[in-house]
Amino acid sequence: MVTYVVDSNHSSIEFIVKHMMVSKVKGFFENYEAEVEATDLEDLTTAQVSFAIDAKSINTRNEDRDTHLRSADFFNVESYPLIRFASTQITKDGSDYELTGDLTIRGTTKPVTFEVEYNGKSKGFDGKTVYGFEAETKINREEFGLTWNAALETGGVVVSKDVKIRVELELTHQEA
């Protein structure tokens, strides 16, 4: 197995959630670590993937909202500082992949499956080979203990229970 590192300047972990039943809020996590080990990244089925995301690093470009998301109403970052993911199975689906693993948020672990697209490989300016991937899934935030909400007088709620998670990765071989 070869260990690959994430180029954080060309990678992201983002989320999208419906707000007030009429628009969407997008955000991302600024700080995370990822480890990908694989025999061959052109065949992702040989890989093991894990993430540790600093929940405090949430950023929706609105400090009041970010402070609320860090509170006990949502991520409770004082008690649960990390969001974790560890792969359990990767299968090929045509030219793409399904990456299944255990996602842990607020101490609750549930299986999730990401649809993964392999974007290919290229040589970087430093001569190293880089690999690109995009992955997406949707979770029900309430299943992970993120249950805060408020009813709207027009019907509906402030925050949708469905959250789309999108990951874009650029990986390079880790030097010894």
TrEMBL record:
This is Polyisoprenoid-binding protein. Residues 3-172 form the Lipid/polyisoprenoid-binding YceI-like domain. Belongs to the UPF0312 family. InterPro entries: Lipid/polyisoprenoid-bd_YceI (IPR007372), TTHA0802/YceI-like_sf (IPR036761). It comes from the Bacteria. It holds the Pfam family YceI. It comes from Lysinibacillus alkalisoli.
